[in-house]
Amino acid sequence: MINSSTYKYLNAQETPFYYYDMDLLKTSLATIKEEAARYNYHIHYAIKANANPKILSLIQAYGFGADCVSGNEIKRSIDNKFPSNQIVYAGVGKSDKEIEMALEANIFCFNCESIPEIEVINEIAKSKNKVAKIALRINPNVNANTHHYITTGIAENKFGINPWEFDQILELLTELDNIQLVGLHFHIGSQIVDLSVFKSLCLRINEIQNWFLEHQIIVDHINVGGGFGINYHKPDEEPIPDFRNYFAIFNEFLNLKAKQQVHFELGRSIVGQCGSLISRVLYVKNGINTNFAILDAGMTELLRPALYQAFHKIENLSSTDEHENYDVVGPICESSDCFGKAVSLPKTKRNDLIAIRSAGAYGEVMASNYNLRQTAKSFFSDDIQI
Ligand code: LLP
Questions:
Q1: Which residue's CA is the closest to the ligand 1 atom numbered 19?
Q2: Has the keyword Amino-acid biosynthesis been applied to this entry (predicted)?
């Protein structure tokens, strides 16, 4: 929610830009920390969701680790003071150079996605006289019931190791001296709002654990990944997802052995609701069937609507007039450069300030310079001097 003094400040800035409500982020972080502490759960923030240094340094101050998918994400995490022994590193295509730097940084664990990857990590670790700690990223074949582009845990996806490879992996691990198996890792998709999906994941993890137990293997930790969704339709009513219920599901359904730790990799649920993309109306144009509100922000600043037909709530911060319907579009030379069709907004005119809400996750990080657009700036509520 943007109050009138914040509006005045934002309206004086050159648009488009990202605006982050740092109080909301702090409250979210405090909530997660408290709810996770009930069960001694370990949280790694998935920095792919938002790697803005100011956001990162606030998150690390709450004691969370980092979940990275590239060498540069590892570097960015360390630069922003995430302890390297709390960094997990996933990804189906880790390059030799990235593996080397992760080994040199002594990260907590590699989440390995294939047999050839484990062999390469072993070789590189051997050349450095190190032992790499790994978790097996297992494809549990659980459907996340989310957009097919962000489903990752069903058999046809490229992610993870499939159960029919387990025998071969155990044999291999006895031969590889520079690999230590410390965990099992799962991540089935993103923007999961149906909590029963996480119950199914737990039950499947229990089955998989049983297989490993039958083979005399008890790993130190189970990493259940991320994926907890946010309410894009009601950002003000539900600014913080229900972490209490979320963690309670894992506590209820996950069977742990001995002193096994549970790790999470949360991205969107931490940062999604604290960010808005702020833009200005350039033109209102009458089409044949509809009015277009043409913004100075487009798919170059926020790709999600164009890429996934994702819904983001759109608000006109400058008008309280009667509502009309608008197709809200950007200036980019692509028909998919559309933030919403037939969006009901107060009567909209040139220069009105528009907020596209719930853009804190996978917004700024997925921006591009297509059409040679300038990278949008970011502003933070705690920097605003009113
Ligand atoms: N762990 C792994 C291994 C992942 O691949 C991801 C996200 C996460 C954790 C964090 O998931 P989260 O808690 O944020 O759902 N660009 C898409 C989302 C892609 C998610 C990729 N993986 C979007 O804008 O919806």
A1: 150
A2: yes
pLDDT tens-digit series, residues 224-261: 999 999 999 999 999 999 999 999 999 999 999 989 99
* H helical segments located in the chain: 4-11, 22-37, 53-61, 71-79, 96-104, 115-127, 166-175, 196-214, 243-253, 268-271, 304-308
Is any atom of ligand 1 closer than 6 Å to the C-beta of 190? yes
Full-model pTM: 0.96
CA 232-233-236 angle, 5° bins: 85
- How many Å apart are CA 42 and CA 34, to the nearest integer? 12
Q: Which domains does the chain have, with CATH numbers?
A: 4-16+273-383 (2.40.37.10), 22-271 (3.20.20.10)
Cα 267 to averaged position of ligand 1 atoms, centre (Å): 6
DSSP 8-state symbol, 160: S
Q: Let me know: does 247 contact 202? Beta carbons within 8 Å.
A: no
d(CA 101, CA 300): 31
Q: Does 265 show up as a binding residue in the annotation?
A: yes
Cα–Cα distances in angstroms (integers) from residue 38 to residues 33, 208, 244, 248, in the given order: 9, 25, 9, 9
Nearest to 285 by CA among 328, 244, 226: 328
Is residue 362 marked as binding? yes
Q: Which residue from 43, 50, 146, 268 has its CB within 8 A of the most atoms of ligand 1, so it is best to mutate?
A: 268
Annotation says 333 is catalytic = yes
Q: Which of 202, 274, 333, 338 is catalytic?
A: 333
